[in-house]
Design goal:
The chain is an alpha/beta fold. It has nine helices and six strands; from the N terminus they run ααβαβααββαβαβαα.
Length: 221
């Protein structure tokens, strides 16, 4: 499986790659990809770590699982490939940006443009079997991505963590709130957003204001 990952992350994550749980996880993933249709495509499993350079990571957005429909997942949470119809959660993310920053809805739902600016778009589980949501959970991915969150918290300062929904909020315990900004709200899925738990959170302007205050470059959302 020919995955792509930026050298800056390779050096940071090397100890994790050598642990027994991770080796078992990779064996599981290889078996799944050889026997079933899985997403994202093999080379894009670590896309979040390929586009967002470790030293330049300024924002972390946490998702739970990759999209499991054909042609959707591209290895970045909430993101879809160019030309793919926007899933409901992504539509609500763009609507909040429109309300918050007065930016029109973009033509593409591919969030690579955010990742290239230092936004780590991290799913807690990096792979999924086609049309079977959650099928690769509790196989080791969560151990790995929890370690990634702790690594960023420990080794960096003034990073914005956006935790949306109950699952993401559980990760607060991994983050040092004394040197990072933690923004929480309901999930952008229609179930949560339509109950008033998402719209109006202004996370995107709050993130940029925090980055600006700490002399860091703002994100062009």
């Amino acid at each position: 499986m020919n995955v792509r990952i930026h050298p800056s992350w390779k050096s940071e994550l090397k100890p994790e790659f050598e642990k027994d749980y991770f080796k078992k996880l990779i064996d599981f993933v290889k078996d799944e990809y050889s026997e079933h249709k899985c997403f994202p495509p093999g080379p894009e499993i670590f896309a979040a770590f390929d586009h967002s350079v470790f030293e330049e990571t300024r924002v972390v957005i946490l998702g739970q699982d990759p999209y499991h429909g054909n042609g959707q997942a591209n290895g970045l949470c909430f993101s879809v490939k160019d030309g793919i119809q926007f899933p409901p959660s992504l539509i609500n993310i763009f609507k909040e940006i429109e309300n918050d920053l007065d930016k029109p809805l973009p033509e593409s739902g591919n969030l690579q443009r955010w990742a290239d600016q230092g936004v780590l778009l991290l799913n807690a589980t990096l792979t999924v079997r086609a049309h079977q949501a959650g099928s690769h959970q509790k196989k080791g991915w969560e151990t790995f991505t929890d370690r990634v969150i702790k690594l960023i918290s420990e080794h960096k300062e003034n990073v914005v963590f956006m935790l949306w929904g109950g699952y993401a909020k559980k990760k607060i315990k991994l983050i040092d709130a004394s040197k990072h900004l933690i923004l929480t709200s309901g999930h952008p899925s229609p179930l949560s957003a339509n109950r008033g738990y998402w719209f109006g959170n202004k996370h995107f302007s709050k993130a940029n204001e925090y980055l600006k205050q700490h002399g860091r470059k703002e994100i062009n959302w």
